[in-house]
Amino acid sequence: MTFIFVFSLLSQGGKKGKKAAGEKGKGGKGAGRINGHHQENGMENMMLFEVVKLGRSAMQSVVDDWIESYKHDRDVALLDLINFFIQCSGCKGVVTGEMFRNMQNSEIIRRMTEEFDEDSGDYPLTIAGPQWKKFKTSFCEFISVLVRQCQYSIIYDEYMMDTVISLLTGLSDSQVRAFRHTSTLAAMKLMTALVNVALNLSINMDNTQRQYEAERNKMVAKRANDRLELLLQKRKELQENQDEIENMMNAIFKGVFVHRYRDSIAEIRAICIEEIGVWMKLYSDAFLNDSYLKYVGWTMHDKQGEVRLKCLTALQGLYHNRELNARLELFTSRFKDRIVSMTLDKEYDVAVQAIKLLTLVLNTDEVLTPEDCESVYHLVYSAHRPVAVAAGEFLFKKLFSHREPEDEGAPKRRGRQSPNANLIKTTVFFFLESELHEHAAYLVDSLWECGAELLKDWECMISLLLDDPLPGEEALTDRQETALIEIMLCTVRQAAECHPPVGRGTGKRVMTAKEKKTQLDDRTRITELFAVALPPLLAKYAVDGEKVTNLLQLPQFFDLEIYTTGRLEKHLESLLRQIKEIVEKHTDTEVLESCSKTYHALCNEEFTIFNRVDIARSQLLDELVDKFNRLLEDFLQEGEDADEDDAYQVLSTLKRITAFHNAHDLSGWDLFTSNFKLLNTGIENGDMPEQIVIHSLQCTHYVILWHLAKLSEGSSRKDDLVTLRKQMRAFCMMCQRYLTNVNTAVKEQAFTILCDLLLIFSHQMVSGGREHLEPLVYSPEDSLQSELLSFIMNHVFIDQDDDTNSTDGQQDDEAVKIEALHKRRNLLAAYCKLIIYCVVEMRTGADIFKQYMRYYNDYGDIIKETMSKTRQIDKIQCAKTLILSLQQLFIEMVTELGHGFDRSSSAFCGIKELARRFSLTFGLDQVKTRDAIAMLHKDGIEFAFKEPSPQGEGSPPRNLAFLDILTDFLLFSPLCFWMGSFKDCWLPLISYRNSLQAGGDDDTMSVMSGYSSRGSSVRSKKTKPPVVTAGTSAAKRKLPEEESSSSSEVWQQSMQTPVMMPSPHLTSTAMRDPKRARDDSFMGVYPLPHDQQQPHQHPQHHQPTPQHHQASMDYKYACLSLSFRRGTGLMEEDEEPIVEDVMMSSEGRMDDLNEGMDFDTMDIDLPPSKNRRERSELKPDYFDPSIMDESVSSIKIRILY
Predict the structure, then answer these.
(1) Which helix (H) or strand (E) holds 487?
(2) Any coiled-coil ranges, and where (predicted)?
(3) Residue 43 phi, psi (nearest 5)
């Protein structure tokens, strides 16, 4: 019965009963009105589509109007419904009554396809805008209400549903996306509505069956035979209706779903998977089996995250019902591995839902193996917060859901005996086993939403740390106590600050009133608990630096007012005593800085405890400074006789003072004089311990910064400015002297402080209304700039193995290497900031820029950003700096290899590659970069002709090969015409000159074509000029004798040309005949008049060297003018850009572009000496589009035919 219905439905096209129905409807009572609207020539004023689109009417009344019209004339009503689906697809065509009566559905669809509006690819389901936002919802609601209202009679008339299902099946098979998308959505929603009908029928059948059984089991005397017959008849009708509904559902499933769940459009596939999930959840008896589940399992491998997401959400609805778990056992065993792997999906939304699904799978006993769970556990440390929170819920349910039951009548256990004690221990064990000890804040944040009650049980945590273990209970180890203190600190910070840790937050979120109240309550509770517990905790762990460092951070989150309102002053006194003892016991920098920050947090003038804390702090600092001055005086007097114990005492006291000076103003104590005296003694004697010098430099640095901060706040006296100016300049000179220290750590400290001071006291310090600080502005002298640059070259641009900072045989330790690299990056960044803020001359950056390629992996991002910033400051000066760096590399190469180097050597190719990378940073906006590029070429040409050849005037200049490097700054590859009788040494000049001419030719043609054929999409193809490379044999590249000349004659002629011809003005309006220029490229190096092409020697050849140099300079400017001409055409857009992306960001995109082009008939303008294979092998990360101007993205590359 089912298959007969399906095949008849698809073959007949829903025509069953049309004729009879049409005859029945003629002249009917309601022929003039449909849906309550007036009819004209069979068409209503407001179509059903318009009613649904507006969404103003209740869908129930709209459907009731349609049902009423269907009862009057079902052909007209069905025609209205068919046009509704056609118009919902965005088609402008209309199905007429004649078409409906005489044409098959396939013919109607083909006719509608022809009338489809092809101007736009949008249709109602995809159109953006407020009018269409609710259309999809209204569309789906209409179908659902239509079936619900027709479920008792009309859907069984073998006409309406047959016609609709046949139409939707045909539309879903259309090649038009709009038809396919809209009809699939309609069919799936129709199927969902039918599933609801089938479910109701099933329930009614079960009720009828129970009533029948109950009546039949009665005694014969009490049995009502009429009721039995009625119940049998009702059950028979329900069964027939159920069969009809099942036939309809089978037709939709096999005619639409089976084909569309693998449609090429992701939205269509997502619709199918979303709806089948609804079917399995609503009517699990019929749909929750492997025959339907397999489609969801297969689609979990879909390449689109949207579809994979629908699969997971569909499965979540199933696994949420524990009664269905038994039916999902086979599916779970088959697709469990896929679900686990989806927790690492590249789409974060998919990963989140996969973890949530696995959390529901935990309801099934022992389905997930320990390995499966561990793959989810580590995601609590993910930087993406939704993924981490989902993993935290999984972890909490797996490890913490089993609590010890509490007796309702028994008092609530607290502290070590509370039910949370074992759970807190479990958290500590998990944190230690994860081996990510620096990420406790991320673990706490992941568990916060699901386990905040557990994590806020600070009373239990304090008890675990302070109280003795219960009988039979195992005490925490030292490592576990350290982890517990760190977790406790993170929970306090999370409760007090109410935002995720660094790296997880998306910005500050506005807190609700409830969240603010919770935050205040938590801070109050934190203060009340830890104000009492912190002193004994510090006393217990006073000798453990790591524990003390974490514990001392707790007062930063206190509500200090509670010390007064809660009568907790005695605990404050105890806390201050413990901090003082810790300062006296420890010399570790982290511990001392934590003590300093704690004093800073407690010394808040807004609270009444300020005086008490300030007195304690002043007493401590008085003791430290007096002790330091006394020890320093004795230490300096002893000189070389000072032992290690004296040096240690000075160092430990200096460490404490430096740590406090970082957060507190110690201007009341004259620390500059003592520290400067110590530093000066170290310079004179040269035997001062390394750590003493380092901390003395840091302390003196703090003295100057605090002094500057006081002067910046308000009006300052002239004496104070003079004092600070003297101290600052004297200290800078001291740091400069320490740059030559034998100890690397001392030199690094002096360099870092020098860079900071030069930046702070630069000309920018007077901005923002601080003109009174102008006497403090300090500009470094040339000698200091030179020393800073030398330090960078000697200590930053070194190989990893040459770094001598790694000690104790740890050179091979990866962590040590990373730390050393991080330190060198900081040093380079400090110097680059001086370049960016114009503290040092920009030209000093040439030594930095030339290392770009060699140290790209270590410092490429820093150097690239520096180039970008300098170009924003001064484009021309930046261009001069870039060309200077290339000149320096060229000189170094010539010094090493000699002037007769091989231009195919790795050194020369490396310089060319660096030039190419530099050229990419300029972008393609020629209006903005024109002057900079021109200056770059000018300096490059001057450098190439600067030194004449020692072999005489007939030989090329020494640096002529540098022109070959300059060609990489041309946006188009040079056309390398070969001069048959010339030596290879002249190739750079020929290549550079012809590259300029080629650019000019191309631009001339593009400008003319832009005006003559604007708007045309047809490009005229030109035959390519023959390109002969340097590898061509002598026989192939030899020209006729009448067109050749000796290299000496060419040099003589080239020297004469600029003198005989007027130099063109440096403007972009100078044009030349492209044909003549192309022909001239075969006649010689320079274009000569006819009277100068004879091989006689011009008299000016014998003039002195200065005039010779002047002639070469004239030529350089002549060549430069060609580059200006070349810029004109590049600013004209082609009428039909072929390649959209100028710089490919990946190898795959370049390969895809190349595959679609015929390289036998066109030339692609890309940098020279790079064929297709070589270009595809270039690392894409070398080009950063972010450093290009925004306007560059609109410029297209042009392909020359």
Answers:
(1) helix 478-497
(2) 198-251
(3) -115, 140
Name the residue type at position 559.
D
Burial of residue 1051 (number of CB atoms within 10 Å: 0-12, 13-18, 19+): buried
* pLDDT tens track for 953-1004: 767 788 888 888 888 776 443 333 333 334 555 666 776 666 666 554 444 3
Distance (Å, whole) CA 984 – CA 900: 11
Share of the chain above pLDDT 90, in %: 43
- Give residue-wise pLDDT tens across range 1042-1095: 333 333 343 333 333 333 333 333 333 333 343 333 333 333 333 333 333 333
Lowest-confidence pick of 39-43, 566-570, 601-605, 747-751:
39-43
Q: Are 932 and 879 in contact (CB under 8 A)?
A: yes
Among 880, 877, 860, 869, which residue's Cα sits nearest to residue 837?
A: 869
CB contact set of 352 (below 8 Å; sequence gap of 6+): 386, 387, 390
Report the amino acid identity of residue 1066: L
Place of tokens 């002047």: 1110
Query: Left (φ > 0), alpha (ψ -120 to 50) or beta: where does 127 sit?
Result: beta
pTM for the structure as a whole: 0.72
346 with 302: CB under 8 angstroms? no
> How far apart are the C-alpha atoms of 140 and 275, rounded to whole Å?
12
CA distance 649 to 60: 90
Interatomic CA distance for residues 1091 and 1080, integer angstroms: 15
Q: Which residues of 985-1016 are buried (b: 16+ CB within 10 A; e: fewer)?
A: bbbbbbbbbbbbbbbbbbbbebbebeeeeeee
Maximum average pLDDT range among 106-115, 289-298, 922-931, 937-946:
289-298
Main-chain dihedrals φ then ψ at residue 331, nearest 5 degrees: -60, -45
In the numeric block, which tokens belong to residue 391? 């993993």
Q: Is 615 exposed, middle or buried (0-12, 13-18, 19+ CB in 10 A)?
A: exposed
Amino acid letter, 668? G
The residue among 534, 604, 611, 540 whose CA lies nearest residue 574 is: 534
- What radius of gyration do the chain's Cα atoms show? 42
- Residue 400, CA distances (Å) to 453, 458, 532, 700 in order: 12, 17, 29, 53
Contacts for 362 with CB less than 8 Å, ≥ 6 apart: 368, 394, 397, 398
| Strands 1199-1200, 37-40: pairing kind | unpaired
pLDDT above 80 (res 668): yes
Q: What is the pLDDT of residues 476-510, one digit of tens each?
A: 999 999 999 999 999 999 999 988 888 887 667 78
> What's the pLDDT score for residue 789?
94
Q: Which residue intervals of 837-925 are DSSP H helices?
A: 846-849, 856-873, 875-897, 906-920
Q: How far is CA 1025 from CA 337, 977, 981, 1006, in A?
A: 60, 9, 19, 17
d(CA 155, CA 244): 9
Strand bridging mode 37-40 / 43-44: antiparallel
CA distance 1103 to 638: 75
Q: Which residues, including other chains, have CB under 8 Å from residue 114's CB and lie 6 or more apart?
A: 93
User: Which amino acid would we find at residue 298?
Assistant: W
What CA–CA distances, in Å, run from 766 to 759, 771, 914? 12, 5, 39
The more confidently predicted of residues 21 and 269 is 269
The HSE-up count of residue 986 (CA atoms within 13 Å, CB side) is 22
Question: pLDDT per residue over 1121-1140, tens digit each?
Answer: 333 333 333 233 333 332 23
Give one word for 352, left, alpha or beta, with left for phi > 0 and alpha for psi -120 to 50.
alpha
